[in-house]
């Protein structure tokens, strides 16, 4: 029953990650609840294996359909991996209790902006490239990837918002780019976890397979629903994650 619950949870987490991000908020607490003896580092590391597999799977599906600019992604990928790895190394030095209020404030700001700008991310499609936009995207990717290595919640949402604002494109194209970059941030952090010997591989492989199934369903949901679905999903994630983090901080 424990394994069945974890497999189902990994599938749901994969679907959520593919649609907007935040699947770790499902799978990590589930791992710790079902297996209370599991060390937090092992739960984080095992979740990262599943997240890498699922996010990469969703990225392939979305890139084939949406065809985001590959030159931009090739520049962002190594920056994302290196900065996420650096964030994972720095995680022990950062106090999560200090970070949570800042992240809650940022998420609420994103939610208010999207709620009062109904056309943002839903009408633009072709996007603008080059010049300052390339450098701005690299800086944004570096900062968000570092955050993903340290803390993580909302990484996919922050990437989608950054790419939509910088490149003046719709949420669907930004989601495809975000999945590729998020795969790299997950890989960077995972390398650190593997080096530390934290991954429970037999469980991780099973959860990764379930996560891929959920991610494929999620990618197809995104393609079918388009930018408007992502907008509603983004607003839902803002509310859920803000409430979750507030409960952890002050509950």
Automatic annotation (TrEMBL):
<keyword id="KW-1003">Cell membrane</keyword>
<feature type="transmembrane region" description="Helical">
    <location>
        <begin position="98"/>
        <end position="116"/>
    </location>
</feature>
<dbReference type="InterPro" id="IPR002781">
    <property type="entry name" value="TM_pro_TauE-like"/>
</dbReference>
<keyword id="KW-1133">Transmembrane helix</keyword>
<dbReference type="InterPro" id="IPR052017">
    <property type="entry name" value="TSUP"/>
</dbReference>
<feature type="transmembrane region" description="Helical">
    <location>
        <begin position="12"/>
        <end position="35"/>
    </location>
</feature>
<comment type="similarity">
    <text>Belongs to the 4-toluene sulfonate uptake permease (TSUP) (TC 2.A.102) family.</text>
</comment>
<keyword id="KW-0472">Membrane</keyword>
<feature type="transmembrane region" description="Helical">
    <location>
        <begin position="187"/>
        <end position="217"/>
    </location>
</feature>
<protein>
    <recommendedName>
        <fullName>Probable membrane transporter protein</fullName>
    </recommendedName>
</protein>
<feature type="transmembrane region" description="Helical">
    <location>
        <begin position="73"/>
        <end position="92"/>
    </location>
</feature>
<keyword id="KW-0812">Transmembrane</keyword>
<dbReference type="GO" id="GO:0005886">
    <property type="term" value="C:plasma membrane"/>
</dbReference>
<feature type="transmembrane region" description="Helical">
    <location>
        <begin position="229"/>
        <end position="250"/>
    </location>
</feature>
<feature type="transmembrane region" description="Helical">
    <location>
        <begin position="137"/>
        <end position="167"/>
    </location>
</feature>
<feature type="transmembrane region" description="Helical">
    <location>
        <begin position="41"/>
        <end position="61"/>
    </location>
</feature>
<keyword id="KW-0813">Transport</keyword>
<dbReference type="Pfam" id="PF01925">
    <property type="entry name" value="TauE"/>
</dbReference>
């Amino acid at each position: 029953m424990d394994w069945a619950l974890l497999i189902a949870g990994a599938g749901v987490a994969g679907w959520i990650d593919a649609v907007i991000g935040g699947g770790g908020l499902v799978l990590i607490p589930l791992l710790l609840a079902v297996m209370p003896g599991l060390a937090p580092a092992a739960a984080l590391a095992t979740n990262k294996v599943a997240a890498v597999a699922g996010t990469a799977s969703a990225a392939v599906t979305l890139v084939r359909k949406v065809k985001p600019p590959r030159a931009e992604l090739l520049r962002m990928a190594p920056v994302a991996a290196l900065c996420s790895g650096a964030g994972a190394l720095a995680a022990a030095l950062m106090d999560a209790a200090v970070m949570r209020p800042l992240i809650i404030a940022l998420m609420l700001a994103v939610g208010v902006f999207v709620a009062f700008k109904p056309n943002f991310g839903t009408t633009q499609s072709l996007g603008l490239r080059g010049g300052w936009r390339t450098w701005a995207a690299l800086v944004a990717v570096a900062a968000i990837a570092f955050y993903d290595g340290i803390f993580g919640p909302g990484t996919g949402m922050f990437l989608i918002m950054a790419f939509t604002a910088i490149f003046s494109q719709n949420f669907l194209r930004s989601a495809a780019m975000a999945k590729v970059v998020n795969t790299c941030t997950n890989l960077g952090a995972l390398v650190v976890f593997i080096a530390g010997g934290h991954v429970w591989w037999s469980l991780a492989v099973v959860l990764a397979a379930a996560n891929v199934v959920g991610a494929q369903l999620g990618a197809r949901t995104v393609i079918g629903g388009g930018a408007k679905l992502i907008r509603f999903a983004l607003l839902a994630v803002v509310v859920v994650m803000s409430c979750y983090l507030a409960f952890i901080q002050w509950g």
